[in-house]
Protein 1
Amino acid sequence: MALNIKPLADRVIIEAEKAEEKTTSGIIIPDTAKEKPQKGTVVAVGPGTKDEPTTLKNGDVVLYGKYAGTEIKIDGSDYLIMKESDVLAIV
């Protein structure tokens, strides 16, 4: 999906994976007990800075810190916007 928003400098917008709904044994996890996902897909990338160009690209699946980024809502969908340095790895 193309977003009509462009992150600035070295920021990226990530669509987080959905939290697990059930355990492997089939127990349904209530919303209050769900773990915040730490994996997502990059949907928009800023141009980088003069000294550090961005290395991520749209479609990269990445891991990020548990409390990294700022949650935003765009066109009814939830995303995270964070600095590229908050991304820990590409999967």
Note: The chain has a mean pLDDT of 88.
Protein 2
Amino acid sequence: MVSPIKVVGTLLRWTAPVVVIAGGALIAKELIDRREAPPKVDPPPRVLPVDVITVERRDNPASLQVFGTVRPLRTLVLRPTVGGPIQQIHPELLEGGRISEGETILRVDRRDYLLALDVANSNLVAAEADLDIELGNAAVAEREWKLLEGSIEVTDAGRKLALREPYLARRRSEVQSARTRVAQAQLDLERTEIKAPFDALVLSESVEVGGQAVVGAELARMVDRSRFSVEVSVPAERLDLLQPAGAAARILLPDGEREGTLERVLGEVDPEGRMTRLQVTIADPLSAEGASALLGAYAEVLLPCRPIGGSISVPRAALREGDTVWVADANDEFQIRQVDVVMRRPDDVLVVAGLEEGERVITSAVAVPIPGLKLAPRTRGAEQVGAGSLEEAGR
């Protein structure tokens, strides 16, 4: 039989912890219920600081950005018209050499042509002497004809023979032929010396003193170094924007910048892109002053355009994907605007629709561009990017 004391001890061992835990829970609940709740504080609204510029409408000067390669404006392929040993060449007749207008490029041995001229002059003297003799014979025949004219009956052909008219015509023809041969000999003699028709830059040559000049064979190739050209292609719908021929254009080269002239619209369309081709010229392209416009150099050309009236200049950095801009509206809230870009330039674009005078365009980055986001605009001063710059371009 179990002792009552042992039973009571067993119950206490199992129930005491439960009683302690329950009591602690009741005390904790009472303390929590008596605690005062902290005052409720609303979080401050989220405001994003951004950089903005204030835009304005104006007549923005503009230029059209195109690209091309520097090419020669005039090319000369040197082909002699007389043959013979080459007696003299210009010391600058080397690849890259420079020969001034009027200077002798090369001279062919003249002796054969001098002899030919002497022979032609001798033949002319002989022909003129034969003509003088025939004129004397004709004068005698005319006197004799006058004595016999009434006593004999002859035909018109017989009369011409009697007066030696056919012989006289032949002698005159021989004189004229001899004079022509003299002129040809003089021309051949002049052609033994070839002079530069313009200030030339030698591109290639295959001639040496003592070599043989062959009629029609290429001896050298050179270009006019006083002016080079850049041929560019422009969309046909952009031609109306360009200023007329003769306007100054800017040419950006790998090592600097040069001024060019819009020369003319070429009379053909680029077969690949169906674009209109224009020619821009560079005066004195190899001058030591400024960048050298070397042949074959890749060039960016800014063609002068008429001002774009009532347009707004927007920095390139502020133009977003899909031709949109971010705007801080009158309530300092974030807005996205679709704009109509009429011309794109290196530093900015010209907008004709989608923005109004005095609006603030955001130029800084926004991680999550959500319309209606509260902003803290920071104006970057009177920064009208590109408003009066001609360093612009369009596509």
Note: The two ends are 111 Å apart (CA to CA).
